[in-house]
Amino acid sequence: MEIDRYDRQILQLLQEDGRISNQDLADRIGLSPSPCLRRVRALEEAGLITGYRAQLDAKKLGLSLMALIGISMDQHTPERFTNFEAAIAQVPEVLECLLITGQQSDYQLKVAVQDMDAYQELLLNRINRIAGVTGVHTSFVLRRVIDRNTLAVAP
Question: Measured between alpha carbons, how far is 128 from 121 in angstroms, rounded to an integer?
């Protein structure tokens, strides 16, 4: 799908406020509501917009400890990676799982837990028990400097 300036504006504004009304969105980009809604639906159908969600405050939910965990695997086979990815997808504390290169780790996880005891339980009783996990290196987040969930929509 080829996108124009209106589509880019729609994508940017919806990333900033997924609850914006179609009327407000149309007003902000300079279109009437009907063509604006058609464009939003076309962007959804093309897969550029994959969903809408609420952002929650982790600390207010009691999840005050965030960690980045590097995971090393014993074998670099598709079966081993598939097994790990299926197992880690079942762990709700994992916010993000990335298969990476250029490090000693094969995966990087971003997790949010209540405290150090909860982290220890997560690591020892769940992550380390996944078949193939041979190494774990953890860094704890002291402060979020940039916490952005929006993509730059290039002109």
Answer: 10
Which CATH number applies to 5-45? 1.10.10.10
**Residues forming a β-bridge with 109:** 69, 97
Fold designation for 59-140: Alpha-Beta Plaits (3.30.70)
pLDDT tens, per residue, the chain with 155 residues: 899 999 999 999 999 999 999 999 999 999 999 999 999 999 999 999 999 999 999 999 999 999 999 999 999 999 999 999 999 999 999 999 999 998 899 999 999 999 999 999 999 999 999 999 999 999 999 999 998 889 999 77
| pTM over 0.85, yes/no | yes
Domain ranges in the chain are 5-45, 59-140
Buried b (16+ CB within 10 A) or exposed e, 34-70: eebeebbeebeeeeebeeeeeeeebeeeebebbbbbb
What's the token pair of residue 2?
């080829």
Radius of gyration of the chain (CA): 20
Write out the DSSP string of 12-24: HHHHH-TT--HHH
